[in-house]
């Protein structure tokens, strides 16, 4: 099979066929059909999904960043074409690849022979797609990691894409966090409302209470609480989110109880809140900043008040998100994840008392399924609003994240804690009452 490759390094050096090299790296039983611009093919003849490598630029993207980063670069540049799958929901392809594709790391000698066989020019990386952010070390030139300036830039990259784009993907709730499905047939909107009701119940919110919602997004939790008679303040680092949320508050006649501010949570001056909710913000904080983060949130609570932290986690402390992988370079710059156990430990160290914890990872897989379906259904308008590359990135990352939640590679934990009085009184019921 690899005759051309075996000859490389000898007297005769014919050009290697790309299909042969794919077989060398992933085996002859490729679960999809692959074809390349040099006329070579491999994989299942009868496959309904196929990949086409259109030109040498795509090959150079892949050769200079082997793995998912190079593939994504080629895909966004239009050099790697997917057939038989919708770009707004490529879950089927990603599931097949995860199940059946086994990448074989070549030996240094084989890698050198492959490079020579293709021509050393493939090791010259093309210009990166404009949607890709700088690697971590270059971002440091724009500010210390998780400083206010750099955090604001990271949030702007992800959330200030277009409010209309998010409306098309998220649906009427405009909620960009894990929903909670009361049953398998529940709609996305029903599940998002159920999530807010769950958070309100865990926090024990009642009319007249005061809530601080940090990283409030488009104000979903703030408006839900206000409708229950709670005075709610939300803060976000996204200017577009704050404008959308405040307009929605006024439209719904909640201005006397609800407010969303464009500001860093660290600049909130009010205190003695009955409850604090943090829904999907911890992922952006940075693990090293957790003690300061939870200490600050504790300082905003009255004694006896409750804090609910809802965030994506890793299944254990040993796994970490790749610092310069696709998610960090295209989706969540500076994002960091750790385990629920680590989060609980930090809460304890700053003097909070954890009282309840649960894992909702299956619910997040279902949430992402519905977001992908929305993106696919509204594809043309989404592309017109945010650009085709941005829409493609969202399709890929949501489908990949769905798969990761299903396979327990990432999780979603809600941790409820109290600011317990010095004498030990927690103001917490004997049994959960939500």
Automatic annotation (TrEMBL):
<keyword id="KW-0949">S-adenosyl-L-methionine</keyword>
<dbReference type="GO" id="GO:0008168">
    <property type="term" value="F:methyltransferase activity"/>
</dbReference>
<dbReference type="InterPro" id="IPR050723">
    <property type="entry name" value="CFA/CMAS"/>
</dbReference>
<dbReference type="GO" id="GO:0032259">
    <property type="term" value="P:methylation"/>
</dbReference>
<dbReference type="InterPro" id="IPR003333">
    <property type="entry name" value="CMAS"/>
</dbReference>
<comment type="similarity">
    <text>Belongs to the CFA/CMAS family.</text>
</comment>
<dbReference type="Pfam" id="PF02353">
    <property type="entry name" value="CMAS"/>
</dbReference>
<dbReference type="InterPro" id="IPR029063">
    <property type="entry name" value="SAM-dependent_MTases_sf"/>
</dbReference>
<protein>
    <submittedName>
        <fullName>Cyclopropane-fatty-acyl-phospholipid synthase</fullName>
    </submittedName>
</protein>
<dbReference type="GO" id="GO:0008610">
    <property type="term" value="P:lipid biosynthetic process"/>
</dbReference>
<keyword id="KW-0489">Methyltransferase</keyword>
<keyword id="KW-0808">Transferase</keyword>
<keyword id="KW-0443">Lipid metabolism</keyword>
């Amino acid at each position: 099979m690899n005759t051309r490759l075996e000859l490389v390094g000898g007297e005769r050096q014919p050009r290697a066929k790309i299909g042969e090299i794919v077989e060398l790296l992933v085996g002859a039983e490729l679960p999809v059909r692959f074809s390349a611009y040099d006329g070579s093919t491999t994989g299942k003849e009868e496959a309904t999904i196929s990949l086409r490598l259109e030109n040498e630029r795509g090959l150079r993207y892949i050769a200079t960043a082997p793995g998912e980063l190079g593939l994504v670069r080629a895909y966004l540049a239009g050099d790697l074409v997917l057939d038989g799958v919708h770009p707004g929901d490529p879950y089927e392809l990603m599931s097949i690849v995860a199940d059946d594709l086994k990448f074989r790391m070549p030996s240094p000698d084989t890698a050198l022979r492959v490079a020579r066989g293709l021509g050393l020019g493939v090791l010259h990386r093309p210009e990166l797609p404009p949607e890709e952010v700088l690697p971590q070390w270059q971002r440091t030139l724009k500010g210390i990691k998780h400083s206010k300036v750099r955090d604001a830039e990271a949030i702007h990259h992800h959330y200030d894409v277009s409010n209309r784009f998010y409306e098309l993907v998220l649906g009427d709730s405009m909620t960009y966090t894990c929903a909670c499905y009361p049953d398998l047939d529940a709609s996305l909107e029903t599940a998002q409302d159920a999530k807010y009701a769950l958070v309100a119940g865990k926090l024990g919110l009642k009319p007249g209470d005061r809530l601080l919602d940090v990283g409030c997004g488009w104000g979903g939790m703030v408006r839900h609480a206000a409708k229950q008679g709670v005075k709610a303040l939300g803060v976000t680092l996204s200017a577009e989110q704050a404008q959308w949320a405040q307009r929605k508050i006024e439209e719904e006649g909640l201005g006397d109880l609800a407010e969303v501010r464009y500001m860093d949570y660290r600049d909130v001056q009010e205190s003695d809140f009955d409850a604090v909710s943090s829904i999907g913000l911890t992922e952006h904080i940075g693990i090293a900043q957790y003690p300061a983060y939870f200490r600050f949130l504790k300082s905003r609570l009255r004694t006896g008040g409750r804090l609910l932290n809802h965030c994506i986690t890793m299944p254990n402390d040993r796994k970490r998100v790749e610092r310069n992988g696709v998610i960090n370079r295209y989706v969540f710059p500076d994002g960091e994840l750790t385990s629920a156990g680590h989060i609980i430990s930090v809460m304890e160290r700053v003097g909070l008392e954890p009282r309840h914890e649960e894992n909702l990872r299956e619910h997040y897989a279902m949430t992402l399924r519905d977001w992908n379906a929305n993106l696919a259904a509204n594809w043309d308008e989404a592309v017109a609003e945010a650009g085709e590359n941005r829409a493609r990135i969202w399709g890929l990352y949501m489908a990949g994240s769905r798969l990761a939640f299903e396979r327990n590679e990432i999780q979603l934990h809600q941790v409820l804690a109290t600011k317990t009085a010095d004498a030990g009184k927690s103001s917490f019921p004997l049994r959960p009452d939500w």
